[in-house]
Automatic annotation (TrEMBL):
SMART domains: HTH_MARR. One of its GO terms (molecular function) is DNA binding. This is MarR family transcriptional regulator. It comes from Microbacterium schleiferi. It is found in: Cytoplasm. Its main location: cytoplasm. Keywords: Cytoplasm, DNA-binding, Transcription, Transcription regulation. GO terms for cellular component: cytoplasm. It holds the Pfam family Staph_reg_Sar_Rot. Residues 1-133 form the HTH marR-type domain. One of its GO terms (biological process) is response to stress. It comes from the Bacteria.
Length: 139
């Protein structure tokens, strides 16, 4: 079944990230938050949640932990107190260079050629888009 293969691949991926991120005390979801912030910041919690497909109940604890580690800060908008903006700290920005080897390490663990990985990414994006398009918004 495709669903089991996807589940097994997801678990294996998470376990691989857990091993390589352990020295920094980071989880895979925390690492994903950092990647998003390295690409573009400041970001609102809402923007980040949309990009990572995480609701605020899941994202807020991740942000809290990263903030307690000193990698980011959060601030409320003066214009609208419901809007929380996230900024990387100097330590959070410095961490990007320190973790620059992680994608290569994960690629090595995958044991598939770059072209195969690129094709798989494209297929998974299409798969995800198809499922999202076929699911009513209220589910």
């Amino acid at each position: 079944m495709l669903c089991f293969s996807l589940y097994a691949a997801s678990r294996a991926t998470t376990q691989a990230y857990r091993r390589v991120l352990k020295p920094w005390g980071l989880t895979y979801p925390q690492y994903l938050v950092l990647i998003e912030l390295w690409e573009s910041q400041p970001r609102t919690v809402s923007e980040l949640g949309d990009d990572l497909m995480l609701d605020s109940g899941t994202l807020s604890p991740l942000l809290g932990r990263l903030e307690s580690l000193g990698y980011l800060s959060r601030s409320r908008s003066v214009a609208d107190a419901r809007v929380v903006t996230i900024h990387l700290t100097d330590s959070g920005r410095d961490l990007q260079a320190e973790l620059a080897h992680i994608p290569g390490e994960i690629a090595r663990c995958m044991a598939i050629p770059p072209a195969g990985a690129a094709a798989l990414i494209a297929e998974l994006r299409d798969y995800t888009a198809g499922l999202q398009a076929s699911t009513p918004a209220h589910d």
